[in-house]
Amino acid sequence: MGENIATSYLVKNNYKILERNYRTKWGEIDIVASKNKKITFFEVKTRVGDQKGKPFEAVNFYKIQGLRRAIRDYLLKKKANQCKLSVDVIGIVIDDCNGISEIKHYSNLDIGLG
């Protein structure tokens, strides 16, 4: 559900969706999108309420390692090494009663793509 919400959010903000759930043996890229001649790799984290912490807090060292490898795989297979890149996180908090209570877009994570 969170990835569908994030996709709608991105389309409304003029992103073109290139891939969803791009899988590699190292992990998955939730959404790959482009805007203004830049490819952005999105990690989507969704929580019901914030009792277990904010969604972006789930993007830990191990998640970043897998994401980095998956992005490199994508770039090699799609021959997109010369493109401008960004790695973003979309955090979604869903309220039990009222639906979506928060969508936060964190841009340009530095995950050391080189």
- Strand order of the main beta sheet, please? 1-2-3-4-5
What is the name of the CATH topology? Trna Endonuclease, Chain: A, domain 1
> Based on CA inertia axes, which overall geometry fits?
globular
Q: What is the count of β-strands? A: 5
CA distance, first residue to last residue: 32 Å
Q: Assign the structural class, choosing from mainly alpha, mainly beta, alpha/beta, alpha+beta, or little secondary structure.
A: alpha+beta
Helix content: 25-40%
From the alpha carbons, calculate the radius of gyration and give it in angstroms.
14 Å
What proportion strand? 35-45%
Molecular structure report:
With 114 residues, this protein is of the alpha+beta class. The chain has a single domain, classed as Trna Endonuclease, Chain: A, domain 1, CATH 3.40.1350. Helices cover 25% and strands 43% of the residues. A five-stranded mixed β-sheet has the order 1-2-3-4-5. The longest helix has 18 residues, at 61-78. The chain is globular and about 45 Å long.
